[in-house]
Amino acid sequence: MKLWFVAAILISVAFPAVMGLKCMTCTSAESWDKCEGKSTTCVASLADQCVKLHYKAGPVETFFKGCGSDVYCDEKTNPSCKAKATNASYECNINCCTGDDCNAGAATRITGIVLLSCALASLMMFFKA
């Protein structure tokens, strides 16, 4: 019985990674409210995080949600944010997360370490009883 419980936890932690991350995708030039998108399954080999990006260059703004990698989650390497160095009135705000559709609302970041810690805590409580 305990073996089945352990197997179920391991599968539930590993299975979403096999299926691919789902992220909200949209682009708007007006606001987050106008950035209405849909949930899309990311290509695992290209994107392992959901991105929520807002950038502003003078009067022009862009609101973006989609799939991305570490390159898109770092202001120094994100293609949209690189222009910040050449334009003094440029703003770039990036939030990345790793849960399905985690970029839909407020920015949160739940890492694999947090998920693994929760799974291990559950196992410890189960085997202690």
UniProtKB/TrEMBL annotation:
Q: Which residues cross the membrane?
A: 106-127
Q: What is the top-level taxon of the source organism?
A: Eukaryota
- Signal peptide span: 1-20
Q: Which SUPFAM superfamilies match?
A: Snake toxin-like
Keyword Signal assigned: yes
Supply the alphabetized keyword list.
Answer: Disulfide bond, Membrane, Signal, Transmembrane, Transmembrane helix
Q: Mind giving the lineage of the organism this protein is from?
A: Eukaryota, Metazoa, Cnidaria, Anthozoa, Hexacorallia
Provide the UPAR/Ly6 domain boundaries. 20-104
For this protein, the record's InterPro entries field holds:
LY6_UPA_recep-like, Snake_toxin-like_sf
Q: What is this protein called?
A: UPAR/Ly6 domain-containing protein
Q: Does the keyword Disulfide bond apply?
A: yes
